[in-house]
Amino acid sequence: MRYQSMDELKKSLQDIVEIDGKVRVANKDLLRGQAIDRLVFNGVFHENPEIKQAARNIVRQSARALAIQPASILPLYEAMGRGECKGFTVPAINIRGLTYDMARAVFRAALLNQVGAVIFEIARSEIGYTAQRPSEYAHVVIAAAIKEGFTGPLFIQGDHFQASAKNFAKNRQAEVQALKELIKEAIEAEFFNIDIDSSTLVDLSKPTVRAQQQDNCEVAAELTAFLRPLEPRGVSISVGGEIGEVGGKNSTVEELEAFMGGFREELDKRGKDFKGISKISIQTGTTHGGVPLPDGTIARVKLDFDTLGKLSQVARGKYGMAGAVQHGASTLPEEAFDHFPRQECAEIHLATGFQNMLYDDPAFPEKVKQEIYDYLRKECAAEKKEGETDEQFIYKTRKKGFGPLKEKFWRLPEEFRKEIGRKLEERFEFLFKKLNVVNTVSLVRETVRPRSPC
Q: What is the mean pLDDT of residues 15-26?
């Protein structure tokens, strides 16, 4: 599938995409065939930087020619904050591996159900262990949109752009600078939705809630002020904040109010005209990925929906935000998902459940799976805790197989990829219906106006 030269790349697109000067799609049906498959693969794996970048540029510019526009979801969230629309929860989907196939499944389910309110995202930690820098992730998602015939606003999000408490304590300036560099890289890749997570800096040992949240307020405000001047013309980035680290104690209204007061105060010091945050992530009883039991199954959790509803109400009523955000939800039981729209939860983040569907599928080639697991047993051995079973260890670490063995996932048998794609599509359709985002295309297009192509 690799192009042997730039000349071959150009010849392969003859009568499909005109790439002299401004890109024009001459035949979108042919582009959506093997042409886009080859472009996306080379934009990820080609060893020649010139060919890799050319493939990415062609995909991005072809998408614009086909009315696929990376956008900020902020106008929709502002409308939610004003009470102009409600009754649905926007799914934000983290894709760690088999990214092209999984994104295609999302688009197929969205198109079938007229879903406009859906976000593709990747976290700071995932960028590392899945070896997907923002430009690559956006390239693959946009290519998947072309492949499936999606058009309109496309929301790509930096999830958990998270401060490391350990690194922050060691060198505050260096850790904040690392986050600024990541934010800049993400915006250049057309991530117009950024979730700042400095909740890791909350210090519960301090005497007052405001004091506990102070570092969180300062860093969130500094990063928000940093990114606003980086926004492309016509774009106002949707920024999320967080008050409770997922897996910790449940959040309270007092913490929300303390954070918002401190955040606004700190942001105003940096410029009174800076727009604030559009949503707030909280802790309600979940953990990222769920808690694996000794046999590798996942423990059931008791999620505090009352807290979720109460904080969403305060976030909207007092601060004009879309509401609260739920993390760590993909491994929840099916009956839980109805509750999120009822509690007017603004956004829900979903990741590990899709990873589990892939790894646990009976048709996943056993030889490849064992190669991945053997790699993890060797390279991640230091992460195994005393008394932890092999099943628990594998469940906890198998997300780290996606990066080092990325091409093996891309080269899984086509028959398997089609079948897992069908199952994922069914799962996404289930979630879209439960979260009540079916038939939101018109709403999104009415509220969100993507910037004009450059």
A: 88
Q: CB neighbours (10 Å) of residue 1?
A: 13
**Token pair listed for 205:** 């040992």
Average pLDDT over residues 205-223: 96
Which tokens sit at 47?
């060893």
Cβ count within 10 A of residue 442:
10
Compute the mean pLDDT over every residue in the chain, rounded to the nearest whole number: 93
Q: Which amino acid is at 175?
A: E
**Pairing state between β 17-18 and 24-25:** antiparallel
DSSP character at residue 385: P
DSSP letter for 243, please.
S
Q: Which residues pair with 92 in a beta bridge?
A: 119, 349
Residue 284 has pLDDT above 90, yes or no: no
Q: What sign has the CA pseudo-torsion 188, 78, 86, 323?
A: positive
Which one-letter amino acid corresponds to residue 271? Answer: G
Q: List Cβ neighbours of 335 (8 Å cut-off, separation of 6 or more).
A: none
Q: What is the pLDDT of residue 331?
A: 76
Which pLDDT belongs to residue 452?
Answer: 52
- Distance (Å, rounded) from C-alpha 79 to C-alpha 176? 31
Spatial distance between the Cα atoms of 254 and 38, rounded to a whole number of angstroms: 52
Q: Which domains does the chain have, with CATH numbers?
A: 6-65 (no CATH), 69-89+153-357+434-447 (3.20.20.70)
Distances (CA, A) of 31 to 15, 415, 453: 10, 22, 20
pLDDT at residue number 286: 55
Sort 104 into a burial class: Cβ within 10 Å, 0-12 / 13-18 / 19+: buried
Encode pLDDT of 109-158 as tens digits. Answer: 999 999 999 999 999 999 999 999 999 999 999 999 999 999 999 999 99
Distance, in Å, from the CA atom of 101 to the CA atom of 141, rounded to the nearest integer, reads 10
Check: CB of residue 119 under 8 Å from CB of residue 88.
Answer: no
